[in-house]
């Protein structure tokens, strides 16, 4: 039995969680900074870092209280150290090092993408590798062959804009504000996904959404220059359909090529309702099982970091007091 404290500060959520044996969540506390960044139309790194400093200790204390566990009874402290905003990561890493040192327990470094994958282990206690996983968020769009809990092969990755980044930029040009993804998803419910034929970029299993994003921007700007009124719901629905078509086709195609009978999705974009339904339907048509975490485990949280930390802990992975934040290190470089 192992109790792991997880700490997550890679972007604009300050989070802490305690899990038991990497599957059972005893607490999951998240302080979101969305209201602070909304007026700027996106995350301001300096503001995010300062707010993490303000909130990290109270959030950790709340997680321990909610879990009804004393800090001395923890077996390890897991923390996101890459990738992410370097200032934000440094807050979590610094606090985790001090906390682990103070209670004389191991420090476990965790890759943020690894954490997103692990959210599925919490949602589905019986899920075991191997399977194919799509991880889609604001900064990442990866298709991974999960050979074992710590053995990943990158099948496809972002070559420019990630899916979540494209959602945010499309939402911005439509005047929806920040965070754009959920707002565009909501607006798309009232639109016709076949109204506008936006491009579906294809590059093997890699992702490239910059052209699609530009197509939406050009469509809106051209209409504005001509004085034509656009149906924003149709634009949102058509854009969203194009993104989901690419994500689903690439992921299911990779699973079929690898002979996998299970697909999991994770990351903030995995909260998109169309993606969840389309991936499930397409997987079912191809005889493939589908796994997706609940909405609260798709966005950044510390339960997923604690869970991933458990598997690193069991594998003997340890971080020293020289552990540093590495904002751009990829999952392939770490694990």
**What's the story with the biggest beta sheet?**
5 strands, mixed
**In terms of per-residue confidence, which ranges show pLDDT below 50 for 5 or more consecutive residues?**
none
What CATH architecture label of the largest domain applies?
A: 2-Layer Sandwich
Give the number of helices. Answer: 12
Under CATH, the topology of the largest domain is which? Nucleotidyltransferase, domain 5
How many angstroms separate the termini? 24 Å
Overall pLDDT level? 95
Can you walk me through this structure?
With 335 residues, the chain is an alpha/beta fold. It starts with a strand and ends with a helix. It folds into 2 domains: 155 residues, 2-Layer Sandwich (Nucleotidyltransferase, domain 5); 167 residues, Nucleotidyltransferase, domain 5. The strands form 2 sheets. It has a 5-stranded mixed sheet, sandwiched between helices. It is 46% helix and 19% strand. Helix 2 packs parallel to helix 3, helix 5 packs parallel to helix 7 and helix 8 packs parallel to helix 9.
């Amino acid at each position: 039995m192992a109790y792991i404290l997880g700490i997550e500060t890679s972007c604009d959520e300050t989070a802490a969680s305690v899990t038991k044996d990497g599957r059972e969540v005893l607490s999951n506390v998240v302080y979101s900074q969305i209201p602070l960044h909304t007026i700027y139309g996106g995350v301001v790194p300096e503001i995010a870092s300062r707010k993490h400093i303000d909130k990290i200790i109270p959030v950790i204390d709340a997680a321990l209280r909610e879990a009804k566990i004393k800090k001395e009874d923890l077996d390890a402290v897991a923390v996101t150290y890459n990738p992410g905003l370097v200032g934000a990561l440094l807050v979590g890493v610094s606090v985790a090092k001090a906390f682990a040192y103070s209670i004389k327990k191991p420090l476990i470094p965790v890759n943020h993408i690894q954490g997103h994958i692990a959210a599925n282990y919490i949602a589905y206690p019986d899920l075991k590798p191997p399977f194919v996983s799509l991880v889609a968020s604001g900064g990442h769009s990866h298709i991974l062959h999960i050979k074992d809990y710590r053995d990943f092969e990158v099948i496809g990755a972002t070559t420019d804009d990630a899916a979540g980044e494209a959602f945010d930029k499309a939402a911005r040009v439509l005047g929806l504000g920040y965070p754009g993804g959920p707002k565009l998803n909501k607006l798309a419910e009232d639109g016709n996904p076949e109204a506008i034929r936006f491009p579906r970029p294809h590059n093997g299993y890699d992702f490239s959404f910059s052209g699609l994003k530009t197509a939406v921007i050009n469509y809106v700007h051209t209409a504005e220059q001509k004085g034509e009124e656009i149906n924003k719901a149709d634009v949102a629905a058509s854009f969203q359909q194009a993104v989901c078509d690419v994500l689903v086709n690439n992921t299911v195609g990779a699973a079929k090529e690898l002979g996998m009978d299970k697909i999991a999705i994770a990351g903030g974009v995995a909260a998109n309702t169309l993606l969840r339904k389309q991936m499930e339907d397409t997987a079912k048509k191809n005889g493939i099982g589908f796994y997706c975490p609940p909405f609260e485990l798709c966005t950044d949280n510390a339960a997923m970091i604690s869970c991933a930390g458990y598997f690193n802990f069991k594998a003997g992975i340890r971080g020293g007091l020289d552990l540093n934040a590495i904002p751009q290190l990829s999952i392939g470089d770490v694990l």
